[in-house]
């Protein structure tokens, strides 16, 4: 393959796979031809390698760049030129990794004005006498551009990745150092907040509340401005080169990794790739998969089955895969290389199928934004999100992840219009702008599904809090002998006009106040102690509402009865309080679940929660509204649906049966299953599989039989 590197072609807009060699100082003797051959065999078409910043792997002329001292043993002393020659000879794109977050001790001592300075006036130091620098200072604002100019004038690289560009409040040991207080930050902050009496003091950290929140907006703005300058700088000098840096660069970048002290979210890669692609479908996404267990344990390999999921979930959502190792291939035993290579070669072999891959799901699940919530509310909302994610995955409802902070941008670029259903998980108050956007979307014909806590008018909410405090002081008991401690919100109007409720009458947050309360299908024999299931326990929170005229309800509450001792466990009578309600709004409709059904599913694992969610979802957003496919698959299979540049519909079926506590282990084979096309999609449709390479026949009722598979299968449909 011959690549013309003089033409300003945006090569990254075609499918590609990448391999990263994150070089150590001792890797200056890398055999570039041997590594390039390995990368080509692995299935990658691009190579990311360490160039400069903390340590230069080329003979720099800049006195503030420290050259790798082991380069003196390398003929020519230029690892980057050697690497570039090896990559070019094999048609591999070469990208440069730069890290400007730290400098060596001699540079720090010569230029203390470049450094991060903690609120207690200390530097942030690291291994081998490295010292953190501040994005507000001249190192980031001036010297970085000198370094990049030197690199680009010597090496026509195909792209750049800049590592850890930001205000490093935490170090490698995850020790929190606070907000930078260097002179450059003080000046910029003063200009940002005002002068004289209007000027504000710099915050020290998150404990400064709204002042810290304001600083986060300020600091993010500095990085965004700097990123734009870097992007323009590269585009002016190397028009064919891409920038991977944050969410506004040429390539949106995500590192898939694990950690020993972090609960694994088995769908993290799929979730993140989906929220990137659904927001900006025209901007490529790269998922760089770390081959090691944790940043503090970089010589321990990730479990191969887990590592394969990083790559597989990435390509199933239309992202480009990347394998990331420490050092040079062959020096550390990376157990996941074989399975990763299988994924990379599969992606390269079927690049025509992956070209222009875009999501076509008509359902979106909103990912909560932590910066808009208090910690406790965010934790509950995130648990709800994960429970609903799992429910939709197991029910085989194709969906995208829509980040809460991308709602305005997605509305502006027209992306919201392809969704027929948007699910909002237990998010409480949202930005007023987001509420207006969602109301307009519902009025235009969409179906909004809200679960758990809803946002109410700020004034009414404040009055409700005061009422709750007064009730807390009263220590009153209810008729059943239980101490009641609900948060009263009488008369509180919801932010979202589209919801089927006029106002909130009560909102219970005390866990014990929900004991022995349930939701169940409507029935009339509970007074005789006979019940029809499923019976779903009320957990975490519960809202009561005055419903709008014409609003319909599904399932009702079984009211309190003793839960102990066993001799007296009876008497839960169904009352006229709804588990969910829905009503039309404009040309659309909105649904409200009065309790967090997703969180209940995630934290108990009881399928009755998923069943209830499915019953309501099927009624208000079922059938044709969820696309042309009905899937008969094991619940351990995740389904994604996309369409490519050729108009083919691409269905990925991913085997998740290997899920275990902190990773993926050995999987079980998935038996034969089926996909049925809707009546309007059947005529002229054809289907084939990519893993097994079979042409699939369609039965009279539109059913396509998919053979059993191991890790995954991809079904490509044409003519629908």
UniProtKB/TrEMBL annotation:
Pfam families, per database record: GHL6
- Can you tell me where the transmembrane regions are? none
Name used for this protein in its record: Beta-galactosidase trimerisation domain-containing protein
Highest taxon listed in the record's lineage: Eukaryota
Q: Where is the composition biased (Acidic residues)?
A: 461-478
Q: Map out region (Disordered) in residue numbers.
A: 461-501
Q: Tell me which stretches of the chain form a coiled coil.
A: none
**CDD domains, A to Z:** A4_beta-galactosidase_middle_domain
